[in-house]
Model the fold of this input.
Amino acid sequence: MLPVSADVFAFMNVFSYDISYMKNSEFLFVRSSPTTAKIWVEKFIYKIAIVAKSLLDSNSRHKEQTHFGHLAVNTLEGNSVRIRRVDELSFALDIGVDSASQTAIRDGQKMVYWSSEMSLDLIQKRLGDMGMWVVDGDNSCTSVICHQS
Done:
């Protein structure tokens, strides 16, 4: 995910919710609150790990079910945690395969994101096509992507 607007996360800190979750970009925003402080402990992370392992062992066809954000939200539902599911498609651009023809950010789009399975070369190409991947002569850059190597 790459924010392109300074206020991209402003809507996430809505005090009536403890957690905001964006399914497509796999983004989980946890607000500091008494509720999340009680639940977000080592035992909770261990519980998610057990669920993830059982899904992976069962060769689940639904890969999105094994993403941390999805598992955390499903585990927290019913635990007095106020969860807000956010449709990021209304303010974000997925630069994946289906958006190959888009070369600019539209008004109102506050971030770009891509699948965790998208290759680094394709990410660089898409961001370059939109003028968001620039490495200057002094090797400074306008965007940074972290990925597993």
Q: What stands out?
A: The radius of gyration is 17 Å.
